[in-house]
Amino acid sequence: MNKKYKWTIKGKCSLIETEDGSYVVKPTNNSKINDIFYYLKSRSFDYYPNIISNNRNNIMFEYIEDSSIYNPHKGEDLINVVGLLHAKTSYNKEVSEETHREIYEDIKNNILYLKDYYLKYYELFLTREYMSPKEYAFSRNYSKINSALDFASGKLDNWYDLVKDKKSERICLVHNNLSLDHYLKGSKECLISWDKAKFDTPVLDLYKLYKSSYWELEFSSLYNKYKSINNLSKEEEELLFILISLVPEIKFIDNDFECTREMRLQLDYIYKTEQFLSPYYFTNTNNEANDFNS
Fold this sequence. Notes:
- This protein is α+β, with helices and mostly antiparallel strands.
- The protein contains eight helices and ten strands.
- 51% of the residues lie in helices and 17% in strands.
- The strands form three sheets. Strands 1-2-3-5-4 form a five-stranded antiparallel sheet, with no helix packed on it. A three-stranded antiparallel sheet has the order 6-7-10.
- Helix 3 packs antiparallel against helix 4 and helix 5 runs parallel beside helix 7.
């Protein structure tokens, strides 16, 4: 390699600048990362930085200078790459009856836990003569939270009816760490941070992208763009909608300001998700959008 003249630490990575180019050295604990890049190359998918060298503990990439792109446009470019990734690497895999039942039971148990968790706090806060700001904010929105969980529970039952007798499912290589920060567009388009990549349902990438970027992106158009490249089956789409409709656990910490702020963010997530799902589930006969309470 060329003689280095500048070495900069950026988080877990090192940026090495030489006279003939810049490189990023990143530690990796994924022993199969080389196999992943070899597989991507074999599938004619090259949306990752050029690899300069690698060993068991580190991997060196060519440095990509990210261009300044308006987030909605960056989201469109990113979803296009994700759709190609899934389309080029997907195949059907045999599954046992236990596979879908375990997914069903894991999600159902999580829903039941959250419903019990929020009910206990709701009943506790109702006993207060004077509620704190966080207690009032939660109590005022408890029905919305509970309705979102009821929605997820009902759709989960529908999903299980669709898949319980299926003997195979589609899987593909998923990036498993999608966010706007992990997509670069400079000398080439690429996804970075592949350490968590694995073979799983394509739903996983869409779910994680939604969770990381729902507030910055208009997901309806992105989802339609994705489906034009790699359409989801009915059961895959149902699972995606169930996962994103799950309400995160709100921690009722002592700091009223921080707790109320975090609660506001989670409530915004519920309302934003309701808006995204509305065309799929909540349209009545008058073409008026309803909500999780419907």
